[in-house]
């Protein structure tokens, strides 16, 4: 009976999320309405009347919608409360910046920022209350799903840990190995609200998928490399049997030209505006210990070509004087006080703008790995070379959607999703989302001490357990 009631509630989930989102959107638009009429409208040569006010508020609402969609601020029940607040506040800040630009153009002069800043503070308060109340209400209506986890020969502890970290969405009621047999698994499936399929042989997985589809039981499947490739395939209808076309050519010539043009335009503009930060950082590093400002590492980019990547030095001089690479661990004593600041703010990565201008890298792409790490991962995961179909990037799909402890195998799948589904709009989305993850803790953490030691020693592990942080941030 309970399961039937849950399915009835399920059909209203999108409507519930839409209503929740419209409430906070209306409150934010009302705040802008007040600020516009009382502080900025009279600054125009010919103030707007009522229809003009509606237009201004409507444009502001469009900005809010676009940025909230981009940053996922309205993903009630999907994001944790803190992440929702952060995402919506970032969206509001961007919308307010666009609104100020619009006001400046309309009034033909720079106006007082204080009213918009006060409004941003009020929006933060509204967003915080809204996120806490409506996330809690949503989880009362839609409690965590009780799921059955089906696994095969590969270790499943990593995935279980990730699912347990989101106990607001999932509860693993039981785990079952495929050796129990399809008939036993089918019987168990009926007692759960969902099924998690973890990297099992395709012929068994297909049987389970079709059975769950028939019984209207939702499934969550960890994709294989082949799944990522098929997912991006093109449908062909040459005759009455459907065909799926998959290519392996990287980006087309027109995509490469457009991408290179955007790289040059954005990197040259960024270099011009960031010059003061470059100068201050260089002086701080030099004054601390008198050592070199920059350091270089050899990294792999498109087609396995090796290039020298530039970074601001964040460690002591000769941090790897013993002659082998030691990835930076959390609270690594080799990191200087200046280094901790520039790592936390990602300033140490800015010199890679020069690599982008030179053509070694792109703004968006798979993060270029050290040569020895590419060799190590390729021995364990032969498909790891697939990510070398495009240039390495300053940021990328795996950086935006991955975590600091994303495995090499999962990182590969994320990078392939980017390569197989590339578009200019996807690049723009990743650039904007990079702003969101820039100051999130998992985007700036280093390796754990155990992982750092394993990487330094070249220890080889099984495919699912090779662990990679957001990137290797050691120095030579």
Short description:
The protein is α/β, with parallel strands linked by helices.
The arrangement of helices and strands along the chain is: HHHHHEHEHEHEHEEHEEHHEHEHHHH
Strand portion? 5-15%
Radius of gyration (CA) equals: 25 Å
Model regions low in confidence, pLDDT < 50 over at least 5 residues: 444-474
Structural class: alpha/beta
Could you give a short account of the major beta sheet? 4 strands, parallel
Distance between the terminal alpha carbons, to the nearest Å?
63 Å
Bulk shape: globular
- Count, helices: 17
Helix content: 40-55%
Cross-sheet strand order for the largest sheet: 2-1-3-4
Q: Count the E strands.
A: 10
Summary keywords:
single chain; 476 residues; alpha/beta; 4-stranded parallel sheet; 53% helix; disordered C terminus
List the helices and strands and how they pair.
Blueprint: H1 2-10, H2 13-40, H3 50-71, H4 81-107, H5 114-141, E1 145-151, H6 157-164, E2 170-177, H7 182-189, E3 194-198, H8 202-214, E4 218-221, H9 225-231, E5 234-236, E6 243-245, H10 253-289, E7 294-300, E8 306-312, H11 337-344, H12 352-358, E9 362-364, H13 371-380, E10 393-395, H14 397-401, H15 408-420, H16 424-437, H17 449-456
Parallel strand pairs: 1-2, 1-3, 3-4, 9-10
Antiparallel strand pairs: 5-6, 7-8
């Amino acid at each position: 009976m309970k399961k039937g009631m849950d399915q009835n509630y399920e059909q209203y989930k999108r409507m519930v999320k839409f209503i929740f989102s419209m409430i906070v959107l209306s409150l934010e638009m009302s705040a802008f309405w007040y600020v516009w009429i009382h502080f900025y409208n009279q600054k125009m040569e010919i103030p707007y009347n009522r229809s003009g006010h509606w237009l201004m508020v409507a444009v502001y609402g469009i900005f809010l919608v676009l940025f909230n969609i981009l940053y996922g601020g309205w993903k009630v029940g999907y994001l944790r409360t803190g992440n929702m607040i952060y995402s919506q506040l970032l969206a509001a800040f961007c919308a307010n910046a666009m609104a100020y630009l619009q006001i400046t153009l309309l009034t033909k002069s720079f106006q007082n920022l204080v009213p918009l800043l006060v409004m941003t503070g009020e929006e933060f308060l509204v967003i915080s209350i809204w996120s806490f109340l409506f996330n809690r209400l949503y989880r009362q209506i839609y409690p965590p799903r009780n799921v059955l986890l089906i696994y095969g020969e590969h270790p499943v502890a990593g995935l279980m840990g990730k699912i347990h970290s989101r106990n607001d969405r999932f509860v693993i009621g039981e785990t079952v190995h495929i050796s129990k047999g399809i008939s036993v698994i089918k019987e168990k499936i009926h007692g759960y609200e969902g099924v998690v399929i973890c990297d099992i042989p395709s012929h068994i997985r297909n049987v389970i998928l079709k059975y769950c589809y028939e019984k209207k039981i939702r499934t969550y499947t960890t994709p294989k490399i082949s799944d990522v490739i098929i997912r991006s395939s093109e449908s062909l209808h040459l005759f009455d049997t459907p065909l799926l076309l998959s290519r392996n050519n990287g980006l087309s010539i027109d995509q490469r030209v457009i991408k290179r043009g955007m790289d040059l335009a954005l990197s040259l503009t960024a270099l011009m505006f960031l010059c003061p930060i470059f100068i201050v950082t260089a002086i701080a590093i030099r004054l601390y210990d008198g050592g070199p400002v920059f350091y270089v590492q050899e990294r792999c980019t498109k087609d396995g070509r090796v290039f020298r990547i530039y970074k601001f030095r964040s460690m002591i001089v000769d941090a790897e004087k013993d002659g082998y690479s030691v990835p930076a661990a959390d609270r690594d004593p080799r990191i200087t006080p200046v280094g901790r600041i520039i790592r936390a703010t990602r300033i140490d990565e800015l010199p890679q703008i020069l690599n982008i201008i030179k053509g070694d890298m792109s703004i968006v792409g798979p993060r270029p790995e050290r040569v020895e790490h590419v060799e190590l991962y390729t021995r364990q995961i032969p498909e790891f070379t697939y990510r070398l179909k495009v240039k390495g990037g300053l940021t990328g799909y795996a950086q935006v959607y991955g975590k600091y402890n994303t495995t090499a195998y999962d990182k590969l799948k994320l990078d392939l999703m980017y390569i197989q589904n590339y578009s200019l709009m996807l690049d723009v989305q990743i650039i904007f989302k990079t702003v969101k993850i820039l100051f999130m803790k998992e985007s700036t953490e280093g390796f754990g001490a155990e992982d750092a030691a394993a990487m330094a020693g070249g220890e080889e592990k099984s495919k699912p357990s090779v662990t990679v942080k957001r990137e290797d941030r050691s120095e030579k």
